[in-house]
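Input (Phosphoribosyltransferase):
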Amino acid sequence: MSDGTPLFFADRDEAGRHLADAVAAQVPRHPGPAPLVLALPRGGVPIAVRVAARIGAELDVVIARKIGAPGRPEYGIGAIAEDGPPVFDEPALHALGLTPADLAPAVAEERAELARRTHEYRGDRRVPDPTARVVVVVDDGLATGVTARAALRWLRGHHPARLVLAVPVCSPPARDALSGDADTVICLSAPPQFRAVGQWYDDFTQLTDADVHRALRGFAHT
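Output:
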């Protein structure tokens, strides 16, 4: 969707407003089950709030965790989502001389954190059933896209009517790679000079669990 022109956002709320307009243009309101907007926490939540409100959707979270390279935890080479299997960036594994077995300890650690966050954000609730619904997965941006891929593949197994990925900014390789996992990828800006998601926000403050709860509670009461 992006023409490569860089966009800068004051904060996630502003990014959410712009993204909501773009999603509304491609996911119009219609009779039938309401769309389901699923945020990737934590950063995707305030953006997803704007998107869900704009298209009249149900809002929840889909829990996913990045699996970092050994000694470089910020470099995502895999991810897990909900109760799905690990998804790995195979070219990255090859480049680093790693196998999935080498990452078993990291996978176990991230599964434990995923379970903690699932309980923190949803308690005993299950994620709303995405079957036969339009599902929009929202994050604040994509670098490698591996976390979003894990979420999309997990959701695809639940047979949504249409699976959309929507983000304000992403790297061009992530946008292109994820086009095979989502029916539609909406990315407002995919600048060639992309280095990190945070460089395209004036305020990219890291969010807390409390921030997620406030955003979800606020949406529930609107």
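The longest strand covers residues 72-81.
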